[in-house]
Amino acid sequence: MSHNLYHKEILPASDGMYRYALSIVREPETAKDIVQDCLTKIWSIRKDLDKVEKVNAWAFRIVRNRCIEILRRNRYADLDEKVVNMRHSDPVEEQAITNDFMSLMRKVLKELPVKQQEVFHLREVEDMSYQDIAETCGLTESDVKVNIHRARKKVKEAMQKIDAYGIAN
User: Fold this and answer.
1) CB-CB contact of 112 with 154 (8 Å)
2) CA spacing 20 to 30 A to 8: which of 24, 42, 114, 163?
3) pLDDT band at residue 167, thresholds of 50, 70 and 90?
4) Nearest to 20, CA basis, from 75, 53, 66
């Protein structure tokens, strides 16, 4: 039965799985690899497919999780590459770039509302949990998450603008 379920439900959905993966990772070859990995994983546990209530949704969830895993791994690889490139640069230039970046970051953070500054600092600098931040600031966990999300979004937009145009504001 599970073998048939794989061929009737999973394989026909593989094109949709590819499109979904492509929409997340934005690289055709990586999306193909992800779908192939997921199909292999699903095939290896095909005996248990009868236990899955919504096989299609479950398969797409596996694709999504694999995409996120790949993106996280690539993000750190990109950071490692940047660090290696920085090590080969001029120390004076490196220090100037770092100082400029920190100055711009401080300016961006000062423009955030006070509550967002506070929760952002507690989360990103102090590495506190959402629950601890909520208790510290007298907010709900939901409020903390919303404020951190908004702060990160504003910081990201400002940094992208600076990176793209070389200007702050």
Assistant:
1) yes
2) 24
3) low
4) 66
DSSP states along the chain:
-HHHHIIIIIGGGHHHHHHHHHHHH--HHHHHHHHHHHHHHHHHTGGGGGG-S-HHHHHHHHHHHHHHHHHHHHHHHHHHHHHHHHHTS-HHHHHHHHHHHHHHHHHHHHTS-HHHHHHHIIIIIS---HHHHHHHHT--HHHHHHHHHHHHHHHHHHHHHHHHHS---
Sort residue 127 into left (φ over 0), alpha (ψ -120 to 50) or beta.
Answer: left
Share of the chain above pLDDT 90, in %: 20
Domains and CATH numbers, the chain: 2-78 (1.10.1740), 90-165 (1.10.10.10)
116 near 151, Cβ under 8 Å?
A: yes
Q: Do 163 and 138 meet the contact criterion of CB atoms below 8 Å apart?
A: no
Token code pair at residue 41: 């994983």
For residue range 76-119, list pLDDT tens digits in order. Answer: 555 445 544 545 556 676 677 677 777 888 888 889 998 898 88
